[in-house]
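Quick note —
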Amino acid sequence: MKLGINKTLLPLKLTLFFFSAAAYSILPYLTIHMKDIGISDIDVAVLYTILPLAVVIAPPIVGFFGDKIGNFTRVLKICVFLTAVFHSLLLAVPRNYAKKVYPETSVLIDGKTLEISWLPCEENNLTSYSRISNKKKVDVKLFDCERTCQNFCSSLTPHCNEKNSTWELKGLVANFTSLSEGSARMPLSFYPDPCTRQFDAQVFRLEEDCSVKCQAQTDFLQYCKYEIGSNRLLTNSIYFVIRMLGYMAISCVFIMLDAQTIQMCKMEEELGHTGAYGRQILYKTLAQAVISPLVGLVMDAITEWTGKTNYVAPVIIADFFFLVTFICICFITEDIGLPKNANTWKGLKKVFKNISMIIYLVMMFVCGCCYGFVEAFLFVYLKEDLHAPIYLLGLTITTGALVSIPFLYYSDWIVNKVGMVNVIIWALIMYGVRYVGYSYITCAWYAFPFEALEVFTIFLLRVGSSKYIQVYAPAGTLATVTGLSGGAHFGIGKASGGFIGGLLKSQFNTTAIAFRVFGIGAFTCGIIYAIFHILYGRKVDKKMLEVKANMEKPLDDIKGEEDKKNVDKSMSTNHKCDNEDQPNHNNKMPPKIINKTNNVLK
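Predicted structure written out below.
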């Protein structure tokens, strides 16, 4: 393979890299920013259910104008600018006071026994004791401790962590030996680390003559109430409007860049240059793998220096990358070359009359459901159920991106060999393998092999679906069909996945079973799509190619064919008239002479 720099695509590569760097500088931290400004868990869930629907509203509209204009550059610049503005304005949203109020609790640790005591909750002049949660594994946070020994935490290693005169006990077995109103006693036993392949609870004890009495906060007890400040409506309303506009803008940029990348690669390949789509989005993946962890390190350093979480740093970094992205777009001089006089609405009608394209959009919706579920609940599952450290969560993003890089470089070759529809089928099947695998792991580190399957479920799926759109989208509807596919995947699908996943998690009281249900559903859809494509879809796709070829045929060629038909018809009429004027013995001419005469006429 000849190596070299395609100067035409270089500005596009830089645009993809820097825009992805800007997006992943701020997107991973928006949820914790929402919590810090006082938006409750319920409001966060509602927002994330509604938010992806913006993908359905904005991109098809912008894509329609892009198709009609025939040039994405102007629309792209506006969307990048609006993305930076709206996400920066999130820092100006007024804060609201919101917190969980737990009963006043104290813990006494003596020998190998732990005793929890708590006072009743007071609300509306009524006094009642907080109920015990149903958790079998609980955590306890200790502070304001009175102790007869200094290093009690070392006796409980690795289940005790100390930071800033605060001690956290992780994985306590909630197996109380005595229980009464306001107190519970249990052995000082901890669940073992599942990554060590030990299954029996481990009993610890403090040193002799060592006892600890502390104020505590624990999920062993349910909270008394959830206090929300008076600014809830104001905070939620302003944040929702700004976040929705910002999400619409950034979704438009992602989809417009995809459409522009597809068209530019197609034009470059027609000229005999290298323009593989997978090698272009490789730069987005590289930015995703590198930038987000680095921004996290900067945030940790500033937080340690200032004493509180600071969100100005990621916003400033993101705005810088947005500015560089805007400059790079100015250097994209290649004309996108979309036909400006194509009947987009007529093409859309033909798309929705085609059963193969409808099934494709349905399968992209299913993939979007799976994507929305994992985006919403994977980190929750790893952190709360499997007690993963924070840095491990970041490594899952990096792992999936880094593993995909070599596959993306050769993705066009892979998709051409495997087939566009087959890539989508494999993505659904691998979603099934990935999610069923998640449901059975007992150690967070075991998630990494399944994270590597993002090669199929995200990255190759993106290339395969883009190639499918490039081949089967009717003339003049490239960005519009891309918007429909993006809306089905990142819009309705993603929102539905988060909502359905929340219902399953609530119904089964465990995230593992919800993953298993999603996995079985994805695997089933992959098998159904494979059967449909083998029995019927191939014929429909072939017919669609013929229809598209007729739609994209140049007007001069059509006129030329019509003129040729008229000439042939005229010559045939003249020839018929000449034969009628000739004597009948001409009809008895030898076959060779007749053939020569016909050749001359042709």
